Amino acid sequence: MDKIVFLFGRKAPQTHAEFAEHYLHHHAPLGLEVAVQMDGYTVNLVPDEAAAIDAVTETWTPSIDAFMDPQRAFANEADMVELMTDDASFIGTTQPYVVAEELSVGAWPDGPTRVRTPGMKRISLHPTDATVPSADRVDGPQRVVRNRVLQALAPDAPELAVILLEWAESVDALTPLDSSSVVSYLVEEHVQRQPSERATG
């Protein structure tokens, strides 16, 4: 199973609240309905109005080539036009990364879908492996998934080595990030569809 992580920014003059409302209640259900190459789908909303991005979306697919090809990603042209038109109506910037996910701590997520996941989730963007924190603290995160970046799919996407996902009961349980080169976001996770299979790490 292949995985793509998308960093999305809203289209002006929307507020983050407007972006989030449209994404969760219109765009995500539409994507689940019409995207035939999408196996798993998680929307992570960045509630900070001043943040550089508004969502980090995780998408699992049997084939990246097919998922990124509009002619193969949909059952028919009408579905393709509907989703791409909606996408263009509220998303201003898109930075996609092909990643290989590895479970470092805990177990793979398997909770309910279409509701906000309880607790805290932090997503951090690491330009090098050296900036990734150790996840072996006794009182640290309950789950850590390391997404090793294989390829950026947009020419303007910043160069990244790792996109780190951490789940914890509170912010205090998250390992401090000590590098000024690391950008991190506390997000609201909304799992839309669990992937049917995952890498073993």
Layout of helices and strands:
Elements: E1 2-10, H1 16-34, E2 40-45, E3 55-61, H2 64-67, H3 70-73, H4 77-90, E4 91-105, E5 120-126, E6 143-152, E7 162-168, E8 183-193
Antiparallel strand pairs: 1-3, 1-4, 2-3, 2-8, 4-6, 5-7, 5-8, 6-7
Helix pairs in contact: 1-4
What does the main sheet amount to? 8 strands, antiparallel, barrel
Oligomer: single chain
CATH class: Alpha Beta
Total count of domains: 1
Alpha carbon gap, first and last residue: 12 Å
Helix vs. strand class: alpha+beta
Strand order of the largest sheet: 1-3-2-8-5-7-6-4
Number of strands: 8
| Radius of gyration, CA atoms, in whole angstroms | 16 Å
Please state the average pLDDT score.
Answer: 93
Shape: globular
CATH architecture call: 2-Layer Sandwich
Q: CATH topology, anyone?
A: Alpha-Beta Plaits
String of helices and strands: EHEEHHHEEEEE
| Low-pLDDT stretches | none
| Secondary structure tally, helices | 4
List the defining traits of the structure above:
single chain; Alpha-Beta Plaits; 8-stranded antiparallel β-barrel; alpha+beta; 201 residues
What does the model show?
The chain has about 200 residues and is α+β, with helices and mostly antiparallel strands. The chain has a single domain, classed as Alpha-Beta Plaits. Helices cover about 20% and strands about 35% of the residues. It has helices at about 15-35, 65, 70-75, 75-90; strands at about 1-10, 40-45, 55-60, 90-105, 120-125, 145-150, 160-170, 185-195. Strands 1-3-2-8-5-7-6-4 form an eight-stranded antiparallel beta barrel. α1 packs antiparallel against α4 (about 75-90).
